[in-house]
Design a protein that fits this description.
single chain, 333 residues, Dihydrodipicolinate Reductase, domain 2, nine-stranded mixed sheet, 33% helix, globular
Length: 333
């Protein structure tokens, strides 16, 4: 299976390391505006490099493409890939515009493209266990609280609101997606945000901190808090300031850290520990490439439409905080 990569950022290295472990999968081309970085990534693989992704799509005979780009660069490349390859994996978030995502989805559907969105946490043992528990009658998820309070990521595009959408859209999307996957779709959100504390950071236009309330179609509730202002780790967490608690009638599940290590607390006060998956990118990418090989999306846990629903939820929170003065906003998909 011949694979092309579009994008040369931090996450690209994680995907390449995972693909190396998958039999019959070979990265044959990498495209990115940073030519030096593309060559650095491609050299150990014997892959070709391109500064123009469209040139790569035209020149190479590819089975699948991984689009690993910032939110604002999605759109045209997805539509081009739908005309050239059978399968596309799109990193989250799929865009910073729901209008763009709808146009892309139409292209994928017309072409019959097999698509996976990079919400790798759906494949984790801990998240699968939550989904299993909450699918039991009378044990549905009722309440969730998530937090992501970490240092500001270094890329310049990340600190620009029009490029990243801010931390709730770009990073906390993982928390929202886990809740959607285990508790159902979100119906309405309300949010407040704050700015003005990151005075020393040039060209900084995202929010310093944000709090979000969410109401699910089932009646379940969730709260999320996020911030990119700390100069170090979060003082109350040894796991990087990332966590998620989810509760039902019978269980409380605690997920901690970037790896979302899980602990299940039952009504009998017994505990079940769920280990961190060693290489979740391998699990996700193998499921995607197997789906492309078998020409069936059955093993993919996050479709493009799922990615659109999570995006719609996070964009609605931005709308509430920035435009509606904290008033509730319906999640329009």
């Amino acid at each position: 299976m011949n694979i092309g990569i579009i994008g040369t950022g931090w996450v690209t290295g994680l995907h390449l390391d995972a693909i190396k472990l998958i039999d019959a999968a070979q990265v044959v081309a990498i495209a990115g505006r940073n030519e030096a970085r593309a060559k650095e990534l491609a050299q150990p693989l014997g892959a070709k490099t391109y500064t123009d992704p469209l040139s790569m799509l035209r020149a190479e005979s590819l089975d699948a493409v991984f689009i690993l780009l910032p939110p604002h660069l999605h759109g045209d490349l997805e539509r081009a890939c739908s005309e050239h390859v059978k399968g596309v994996l799109v990193e989250k978030p799929i865009s910073q515009s729901l209008e763009t995502a709808h146009a892309v989805n139409e292209s994928f559907q017309r072409a019959g493209t097999i698509v996976s969105v990079g919400y790798m946490n759906r494949y984790r043992q801990s998240v699968q266990r939550i989904r299993e528990l909450f699918s039991q009658a009378g044990n549905e998820g009722i309440l969730a609280h998530g937090w992501w309070t970490t240092q500001m990521p270094p890329p310049l595009w990340w600190r620009t609101f029009d490029h990243s959408g801010g931390q709730f859209v770009e990073q906390c999307t993982h928390l929202v997606d886990i809740c959607r996957y285990t508790m159902g779709d979100v119906e309405e959100v309300s949010a407040y945000s704050s700015r003005g504390y990151m005075k020393e950071v040039a060209h900084f236009s995202v929010d310093d901190a944000m709090v979000v309330n969410a109401r699910f179609a089932s009646g379940a509730l969730a709260t999320f808090s996020t911030g990119c202002f700390p100069l170090g780790g979060h003082p109350e967490s040894p796991n990087g300031g990332i966590g998620l608690n989810l509760s039902s009638r019978n269980n409380r599940i605690v997920l901690t850290g970037w790896g979302f290590e899980g602990t299940v607390h039952s009504e009998e006060e017994t505990r079940e520990s769920i280990p961190v998956d060693e290489n979740i990118f391998y699990v996700q990418n193998k499921a995607f490439l197997d789906a492309v090989s078998q020409e069936s999306p059955a093993g993919i846990l996050s479709s493009y439409e799922d990615g659109m629903k999570t995006l719609a939820t996070t964009l609605a929170a931005n709308d509430s905080a920035r435009n509606q003065k904290g008033r509730p906003v319906k999640v329009a998909f």
